[in-house]
Structure formats: C-alpha cells, structure tokens
Amino acid sequence: MLSLLYQEGPSTEGIFRRSGSAKTCKELKEKLDSGAEVDLACESIFVTASLFKDFLRNIPGSILSSQLCDKWISVVDQGNNEEKIKSIQRLIEQLPRANVVLLRYLFGVLHGIEMRSEENQMNAFNLAICIAPSLLWPPVAATPDVESEFTKKVSSLVQFLTENCCRIFGEEINSLFGEM
C-alpha cells in the first residue's frame, strides 16, 4: 500500500482527502482480512489511501500510542523547532519498533506528496488534516469541544512531523522506497 501511495500519491490531486468507493473499500478490506491475494495496483489510488487510513485507525492504542497522548500534544506548545524535534525523537524512542518503522515509511510517503503539493494540492497542513485523526486519539472519550481542540493539536503535530521528517527520521527517509 505504502509503495503505491509513494508512487502515485504525489501526482494525485486530493490524495487522502478524497475517499475511495465505500463498497470497494469494504470488499477489499474483507479480502485482505481473510488473507486473500489483492492487487491494489488495479484499484483506484483513493481506495488504497482509504484502506491505509482505515488500517491506521485500527492499530490498537494508535500508532503514536494513546498512552503517550499528553506528551505528544505538549510538543505542539513547546518553544522552538529544535526543542520540538528533540522531544519528538525521545517520544519515538518509546514506541514499539514496528510502529517506528511504519511511521518512517508513512512520513516518507507524506514528504513525497508534500514536495509536489503544487501539483496535488496536498501541502503539509492539508495532509495533516486528513491523516492526523488516524494517527493519535486520546485514551478516553472526551466532550466534543475537548475533542475538537485535541484534533487541532494532533493536526499541528502531524504537520510539523511532515515538514520536518528528514530532521526527525533522518535524510534516508528520502530513499526508503528506492528509486521509483
């Protein structure tokens, strides 16, 4: 999925914003969940993006770890970018290895899409609005007002992660998918 999103996402206007066909997504998810072979290259890239966001939303406790939720949110209010980057790197060290690997590839994809935002209309802010709710959520339910404020902070965090992913994850983030 990520490889397809890396290849096609940068040239696709509204990637992650537009949803794939709900029926097709449901059918493909059922096939994937049953272990059946699925050729996503034959599907709309919007279906792949929708399936990937659904996958992220179904990671128990979220990919960024709901247990670290308050710490992630506090990063947004920290002073300068260097402090934020150091705090983020410390938080990443507390995540399970599988989450870190997936995050690196995810932000490699988002970075590639952002680099061509003039073509696809998906700058870091727009990407963050679309993908942030799939990356982190509070460990307990909240009131709509609190949830709205939380969503804004997570979006700011994801925007910062996208804009600074090379400094956070290392320059090799640009070559994770090899030469496409």
From TrEMBL:
Residues 1-169 form the Rho-GAP domain. Keywords: GTPase activation, Phosphoprotein. The keyword Membrane does not apply. It comes from the Eukaryota. Pfam families: RhoGAP. One of its GO terms (molecular function) is GTPase activator activity. GO terms for biological process: regulation of Rho protein signal transduction; signal transduction. This is RHG20 protein. It comes from Baryphthengus martii (Rufous motmot). The lineage of its organism: Eukaryota, Metazoa, Chordata, Craniata, Vertebrata.
